[in-house]
Amino acid sequence: REKLLEVKNLKKHFNVGKNAVLKAVDDVSFDIYKGETLGLVGESGCGKSTTGRTIIRLYEATAGNVSYEGVDVHGKKSKKELKSFNRKMQMIFQDPYASLNPRMTIKDIIAEGIDIHGLAKNDKERMERVYELLETVGLNRAHASRYPHEFSGGQRQRIGIARALAVDPDFIIADEPISALDVSIQAQVVNLMMKLQKERGLTYLFIAHDLSMVKHISDRVGVMYLGNIVELAESDELYEEPLHPYTQALLSAIPVPDPEVERSRERIILEGDIPSPISPPSGCRFRTRCPHAMDVCASAVPKWQEAREGHWVACHLYDNDLNNENKQ
Ligand code: SF4
Ligand code: MG
C-alpha cells in the first residue's frame, strides 16, 4: 500500500487567554494510504475537526508535521505549490448550508474552484463541467440557477460534494458530512461518497462523532479522546476486538440489531464528564473515566504502540513490560 499522507507528532494548540492553552490536538501520528477511507471518531471537542483542518492547512500546526506524497504541507511554499495543494486537498463540511454562500447560485458555487484554478477554457466548457458535476452527485442541470435555500439538507450536502469535486481532488476531508442529516438520508450520502471514491480513486478522511456512522465507509478507523488518538486499526478488527477501554465503551453503546444479542450484552457506562483540554489529566488522559485505571496511568503517558500488526493503541494495559511484571 502506498502512503498518501503522513501525520507525525502533530500538535495544534490555541491560546485561550492569559497563560491558558487549549491543546486541541496533542501529539497525533498516523498515515493515510492512497484510495482508502480512514474514519476518525470521537466525542465533540476531542480534536478530530482540528486535526482535519490542520492537515488541510486551514490551521497552522503548532508542532509536528504533515507530509502529502512526501512533501511537507506546512513548510514554506511558493504560490504555485500552495495552489496545487489547495486543489488536491478538498474539504466537505458538516453543515452544508453554512458553508454555501446564500447569495450565490449553485452553478457559481460549484464553478468557483474551476475559475480559481483555470480548469475551463471558456464559459461553455465551464457550464458543461458544472452540469456534469451536478449529475455526478445525483442532481440535474435544472438546479444550476437556483440558490442554496431552495434545497434540502441532503441535496445541499450533494452540492458541497460537487463543489469539492469540481477541482478534481485526490484527497477529501469530510468533517461530519452526515451528522446533521436525517438518518434516512445519511446512507444515501455515504453511498454516493463510496461510489465516487471507486470511480475517481479518491482518498478520504471521514470524521464522525459516532462509531456506527463510519463503520460502513471506513477501511480503517482511528478513535480520538481529548486531543489524542487512542486506538487505530482495520475497521473489522476494531469493531470486533477493540483494545482501548474507551473504544470498548463507545462500541458497547451502539445497539445491536439482534435482540437476543442486545439483551445479553454488557453496556459500559463511562462515569464523569470529559475533562477540559486546557488542563487535561496527567498520564493517560482517559484515566478519570477509565474502568481499568491503575496507579501507573496517573504518572505515565501511555506509549502509542502497535499491539498487533496494524493495530495501534495507547494504553498501559498493552504495555509489555508492565504485563510481564503483573504475570510474575
Ligand atoms: Fe485506562 Fe490506564 Fe489504559 Fe488509560 S492507560 S485507558 S487509564 S488502563
Ligand atoms: Mg467538529
UniProtKB/TrEMBL annotation:
Q: Where is the ABC transporter domain?
A: 5-251
Superkingdom per UniProt: Bacteria
User: Which SMART domains does the protein's record reference?
Assistant: AAA
Q: Name one GO molecular function term.
A: ATP binding
The record's keywords, sorted A to Z, are: ATP-binding, Nucleotide-binding, Transport
Q: Which CDD domains match?
A: ABC_NikE_OppD_transporters
InterPro entries assigned to the protein according to its UniProt record, in alphabetical order: AAA+_ATPase, ABC_transp_ATP-bind, ABC_transporter-like_ATP-bd, ABC_transporter-like_CS, Oligopep_ABC_C, P-loop_NTPase
Pfam families associated with the record: ABC_tran, oligo_HPY
Membership in a protein family: Belongs to the ABC transporter superfamily.
The molecule here is called: ATP-binding cassette domain-containing protein
